[in-house]
Amino acid sequence: MVHYPRPSVPARVFARLDPPGPHGSAAEVRTLVGAARRFLRHPRPPVLLGCVGALAVLRVVRGPWRIRDTGVAVAAVAAQPFVEWSVHRILLHARPGGRLGSIGYQLAGYGHEQHHRDPTNLDTMFLRPREVISGTVAVAAPALLGPPWAATGALCLGMGALVYDWTHFLIHTRVPPRTAYYRRLWRGHRLHHYRNERYWLG
Questions:
Q1: How far is CA 4 from the centre of its chain?
Q2: Residues 69-117: pLDDT tens digits?
Q3: Is the peptide bond before 19 cis (omega within 30 degrees of 0)?
Q4: What distance in Å separates the CA atoms of residue 185 and residue 159, rounded to the nearest whole number?
Q5: 188-190-195 Cα angle (round to 5)
Q6: 8 Å CB contact between 131 and 143
Q7: Alpha carbon distance 54, 77 (integer Å)
Q8: Against a cut of 0.70, is the pTM above it?
Q9: How many CA atoms lie within 13 A of 130 on its CB side?
Q10: Cβ(154)–Cβ(140) under 8 Å?
Q11: Are 113 and 95 within 8 A, CB to CB?
Q12: Cis peptide before 20 (omega within 30 of 0)
């Protein structure tokens, strides 16, 4: 009989937080209310919501909001499109070739490749708990030990990830776009999937 090593405690926790599914298809969703319900019922988004909530509590604990915090928040909003494009281009579309490419492919490229093969599959749609929790721990240390505005920056990063996950999911549902801004996002991401994945990376 072959004895396999028992998974580590973190591996068992992540396996419990991220059950393999199947979790259905975004194409089954036709209303905004239905989208919100499906988003909250999937095991991955609640982990992200919990982490963002923890960062919000940490920001409150660090003291009152000041002018510098407003500057950090404005800078985060201004940087979001560039950060998203860079992560999408460099990490999510990483290919296994060379040391950095292989690391990026193992971290996120493979999972994103599966998403491109079946864009509405909810099993490959959302940010994984392993990355969400690791990222939260990484930004929580400077948020707790650094100046209060560092906690504002950490919260902005979490909020950016949450907005991205929700918007990305919504684009793949059948909920029709109702505003010009969202229609532009919706069209661009669908062109990315169904016309040319090298473009429309925002």
A1: 32
A2: 999 999 999 999 999 999 888 888 888 776 766 776 777 778 888 999 9
A3: no
A4: 18
A5: 95
A6: no
A7: 20
A8: yes
A9: 13
A10: yes
A11: no
A12: no
Q: Please list the residues that pair with 121 across neighbouring strands.
A: 25
- Asked if residues 155 and 52 have their Cβ atoms less than 8 Å apart, the reply is yes
Residue located via tokens 């973190």: 10
Structure token pair of residue 88: 């999408």
Q: Is 121 helix (H, G, I), strand (E, B) or coil?
A: strand
CA dihedral 120, 50, 43, 83 (to 10 degrees): 30
How far separated are the first and last CA of the chain, in Å rounded?
Answer: 51
Q: Which helix (H) or strand (E) holds 151?
A: helix 148-172
Q: Quick one: residue 7, left, alpha or beta (phi over 0 = left, psi -120 to 50 = alpha)?
A: beta
Written as six digits, the tokens of 113 are 């490749």
138: closest CA among 166, 117, 157?
A: 157
Q: Is pLDDT larger for residue 29 or for residue 109?
A: 29
Find all residues with CB under 8 Å of 80, minimum gap 6, and list them: 160
Query: Count of H helices and E strands in the chain?
Result: 9, 0
